[in-house]
Design a protein that fits this description.
By secondary structure, the chain is mostly helical. It is built from 3 helices and no strands.
């Protein structure tokens, strides 16, 4: 059960990153690229786990930290994008 939920977290994160430009076109391009880099690192971690180089705990720890740090950055960027939109409307 735990492994399924942990894998699901990574899949949902990848779907959000892939759809981000469509969901929120006002997001900065650098942030979208950072999301893709994080997805790439998580995929590499998955390959390391599949080949036996890393254990599942290490993969979950690093993937969880990356995803949660991305969420923090997402909240900051979403707030900034909202502020830019308000300034554009009032200007």
């Amino acid at each position: 059960m735990h492994n399924t939920v942990a894998s699901g977290m990574a899949v949902v994160y990848a779907v959000i990153v892939i759809g981000l430009p469509k969901f929120l076109p006002s997001m900065p391009r650098v942030f979208v690229i950072l999301g893709w880099v994080y997805v790439g690192v998580i995929v590499v971690l998955g390959v390391f786990f599949a080949t036996g180089y890393y254990n599942l705990t290490a993969v979950e720890l690093v993937a969880g930290l990356l995803i949660f740090s991305w969420i923090i950055l997402f909240l900051r960027n979403a707030d900034s994008a909202g502020a830019r939109r308000i300034l554009a409307v009032t200007a």
